[in-house]
Design brief:
alpha+beta, GCC-box Binding Domain, 2 domains, 3-stranded antiparallel β-sheet, 4 helices, about 25% helix, about 25% strand
């Protein structure tokens, strides 16, 4: 789609605003005049349950971050994702978006919701009463404190994941 026919991006906030749309986007003159009279200049979409900004166009739901990426960078290959660098799903500033493989995008996730230790990559090892660090299923060692185990995780994550590291 030619997203530039639909939207204007506020680069500072990552918010999309409706543009006046051409007549051929609509089945009737009434729909054309109603839409352009009601929505032009207003913010688009809503934040979905999963935290992503979503926009409905002609009965189809689109994620705002993908639209913004394509408006600034062109089509995204189907094998690629758009990654939010800071991990905030509705922060769609172009400077916060980058292309990533699915694997890279998953590395930029935060700690799991069921993490009871409070540090990504760290769990409590009951048999030793110590804290275990691991990454990508690889054991990194046992440590006296959760912060020292997390330090080991961060060091290894930096080597393995590079710019896609997220340690919190």
């Amino acid at each position: 789609m030619n997203w530039h026919e639909y939207f204007h991006i506020d680069d500072a906030t990552g918010v999309l605003y409706w543009k006046e749309r051409p007549r051929f986007h609509f089945k009737t003159d009434r729909a054309f005049h109603t839409f352009n009279g009601k929505y032009v200049g207003h913010k688009t979409g809503h934040i979905g349950k999963n935290g992503y900004a979503r926009i409905n166009i002609d009965g189809h739901t689109h994620r705002a971050h993908r639209i913004i990426w394509e408006m600034r960078n062109g089509p995204l290959p189907k094998s690629m994702d758009v990654d939010h660098i800071n991990g905030i799903r509705h922060d769609n500033r172009p400077s916060n978006l980058r292309s990533a493989t699915r694997s890279q995008n998953m590395r930029n996730r935060g700690a799991n919701k069921n993490n009871t230790v409070g540090f990504k990559g760290v769990s409590f090892h009951k048999q030793s009463c110590k804290f275990m660090a691991s990454i990508d299923g690889i054991y990194l060692g046992l440590f006296e404190t959760p912060s020292s185990a997390h330090d080991a995780y961060v060091a290894e994550a930096t080597v393995r994941h590079g710019q896609y590291i997220r340690t919190t």
